[in-house]
């Protein structure tokens, strides 16, 4: 692609208009997040803050104390009990004191939108739509997210650092090393959660409801039965994901759907009075792979069409020959 070397010389108003147009062309993204270990340990945090981890007070966990009544979160006493369980679980997992375990942040597996990387001018335009979200007590946010278009994607494997068994990632999201930018959590409207095909994971209504409690404004929930990885693609191409209703592996998708038969009454019993989001069952795959599959499908349809035409021509010729055989001789 050739560069337009005179672009910087264009009037600023025109350049901004071009950046605004480019921003409007950005496609919805599937934004994948996961835990990451920080250098600071829990013991170092406790010593620095003269407090017991996990943080529950306003100074280290803003608005924690006042949000229970407003959002339906656990009470302070319940949070303290969760904290005691968290410390015990981490000690059991690590085989040593929880104080030596690392604090956690949240990393983003999805590259930022390209417009944020072009120039300061383009970045300023892009930031009108993209926000940095998912800040943790000791970690700055890394996830660029468009609340109007993007879907936040989570799997239990990506939030399984301090878990005894694969269940819901909600406790990690909520309290233990949880998010502190609560206003942003309330803006997330599209969420995708991977559903594992094995019943041993116990990823049921209760677990999904726990996650929805962290993101209470979700309007569309995608249950991902299969995340298809294409080993022929680069890491960058693998990270450009999209959702589809068509399973790549039909048997795996069927097993996952069969093992997660959600019940609306069950959801309400775990959450309270709320509006259940639109739930769809999907397959996740790289955008490039979907494009290749769609092209293969078109090629297949064209080939079938050509075969049908040849069969029709052959049948027509066969009937013409039979007609010629039985046509009376005019002599």
UniProtKB/TrEMBL annotation:
Any Pfam family hit: 2EXR
Region: Disordered, residue numbers: 55-75
Residue stretches making up the 2EXR domain: 4-152
Cleavable signal peptide: none
Record-given protein name: 2EXR domain-containing protein
Native organism: Mollisia scopiformis
